[in-house]
Automatic annotation (TrEMBL):
UniProt domain PDZ: residue ranges: 266-357, 350-458
Keyword Transmembrane helix among record annotations: no
Compartment annotation: Periplasm
Active site: residue positions: 118 (charge relay system), 148 (charge relay system), 222 (charge relay system)
Family that this chain belongs to: Belongs to the peptidase S1C family.
InterPro entries hit by this protein: PDZ (IPR001478), PDZ_6 (IPR041489), PDZ_sf (IPR036034), Pept_S1C_Do (IPR011782), Peptidase_S1_PA (IPR009003), Peptidase_S1C (IPR001940)
Main location, first listed in the record: periplasm
Cleaved signal peptide residues: none
Gene Ontology cellular component annotations, sorted alphabetically: periplasmic space
Name of the protein this chain belongs to: Serine protease DegQ
Keyword Repeat attributed: yes
Species of origin: Methylomarinovum tepidoasis
């Protein structure tokens, strides 16, 4: 079940792909320039080997050790009986955290290392351990929780970077190789294939466009490299499906094209400050296309336009079908959301669409996010969250009862507790809620702690919010 999906956010996960049999007898020669040469020579026993390629790749993949502190509620004061005897103790206490993961050197000249946000989250001390066993203190340049990408900087001495590939050119069935640090054992290499592309709706991250692979992923591998057989970086490994707590051959990597765009914003601005288009969209199905009399089979159908948004100012209307954004083909609503999510406020983009059977192109200027719904002002644990009843144009309207999280301010208490825009709150302290009024009434009865059951994408989860 998808509700058993483990993102291994405390330890990091990595892609180990297990291919069966010989996998490169058809490779012929390598490209010149900065890319790693494809191994063309057979071993003495006439069997193909990935070793020549890996000799160039392995020095660019590093291990990461992060430590920090978080403030938690004193557990002895949560129970009334213990609270009486320990009432002199502080209500909060610090707890040390440690995380082990992986990373990839992407710029040897400037010392930039890319990894997962959850590997270095809450860390105040970060060390990068190279293949030659050098241990270098790293500085966090910035991170983006929505895509789970973080950028580190180390002293650029005797480093080797991994050349970037093109994740958009990947095909299902392509062979890939993964390198990481499972269970803190040290650098480990595994291989396999690309199982699927464009995976979304998993609820692991805010912006999802995962490469799925049959990798054997384990804690400690998050932030590691997924490379093609030419030794080019095509993905950053981040999560697995683990219904029994172990690997079942379904792992996910962030495409390097997305990760690289996020990394560039972090390096330039220190953060990713996303803009908003301001449309509600759904996938264009064959039935909808036939009913609308259009000859395309893929796209994002606009079902609503937010008042005062960038979309309204540009002239977009309900019923428009977006088939291209910023020069890239749009296959579905999730892909459009990802493309818009990589734009900053003020950026311009060309939108190709179909209206009344006619193709046209419009230029939109990405605007500031508009938080729909009302803010929660009197419950500190929910500060920064905007809640609304499920609107009629929502895909789950009439199918599910709950409260829609219409927006969450990044860095707010609600954000830090794990709430994300698009979540649907089903219950509070095990009490079902059908409206914002019911939710607020139930939440105010428990000012110290809230147990929320959340519907996120295709699975549900529980969140504990504490003061």
């Amino acid at each position: 079940m998808m509700n058993r999906l483990l993102a291994t956010l405390a330890f990091g996960v990595f892609f180990s792909l297990s291919a069966q049999g010989g996998i490169i007898p058809w490779l012929k020669g390598g490209e010149t320039g900065t890319e790693t040469q494809v191994p063309t020579e057979l071993r003495r026993d006439n069997l193909p080997s990935l070793a020549p390629m890996l000799e160039h790749v392995l020095p660019a993949v590093v291990n990461i050790a992060a430590s920090g502190k978080v403030v938690v509620e004193n557990p002895l004061l949560q129970d009334p009986f213990f609270r009486y005897f320990f009432r002199g103790m502080p209500p909060q206490m610090e707890r040390k955290t440690q995380s082990v993961g992986s990373g990839v050197i992407v710029d040897a000249g400037k010392g930039y290392v890319i990894t997962n946000h959850h590997v270095v989250k809450n860390a105040d001390t970060i060390y990068v351990i190279l293949k030659d066993r050098r241990r270098i203190k790293a500085k966090l340049v910035g991170s983006d929780p929505e895509t789970d990408i973080a950028v580190l900087k180390v002293k650029p001495e005797r480093l080797q970077a991994l050349p970037l590939g093109d994740s958009d050119a990947l095909r299902v069935g392509d062979f890939v190789v993964a390198i990481g640090n499972p269970f803190g054992l040290g650098q480990t290499v595994t291989s396999g294939i690309v199982s699927a592309l464009g995976r979304t709706g998993l609820g692991i991250e805010g912006y999802e466009n995962f490469i799925q692979t049959d990798a054997s992923i384990n804690p400690g591998n998050s932030g590691g490299a997924l490379v093609d057989l030419r030794g080019r970086l095509v993905g950053i490994n981040t999560a697995i499906v683990a219904p029994s707590g172990g690997n079942v051959g379904i792992g996910f990597a962030i495409p390097i094209n997305m990760a690289h765009q996020v990394m560039q914003q972090i390096i330039k601005y220190g953060e990713v400050k996303r803009g908003m288009l301001g449309v509600q969209v759904q996938d264009l199905t064959p039935e909808l296309a036939e009913a609308m009399g259009i000859d395309v089979k893929e796209g994002a159908l606009i079902s609503g336009v937010t008042k005062g948004s960038a979309a309204e100012k540009a002239g977009l209307k309900p019923g428009d079908v977006i088939i291209g954004f910023d020069g890239k083909r749009v296959k579905n609503s999730a892909q459009l959301r990802n493309l818009v999510g990589l734009k900053r406020v003020g950026d311009k983009a060309e939108v190709e669409l179909i209206r009344d059977g006619k193709r046209m192109t419009m230029t939109v200027t990405i605007g500031k996010p508009i938080a729909e719904g009302g803010p929660v002002t009197d419950i500190p644990m929910l500060e920064g969250a905007y809640l609304s009843d499920i609107p009629p144009d929502h895909p789950l309207y009439g199918e599910i009862q709950g409260v829609l999280v219409a927006g969450v301010e990044m860095g707010s208490p609600a954000w830090q507790a794990g709430l994300r825009k698009g979540d649907i709150i089903l219950s509070v302290n095990r009490k079902r809620v059908k409206s914002v009024a019911e939710f607020l009434q139930a939440a105010r009865q428990s000012p110290a702690r809230l147990l929320l059951r959340i519907q996120r994408g295709n699975f549900s989860l529980f969140l504990v919010l504490e003061r």
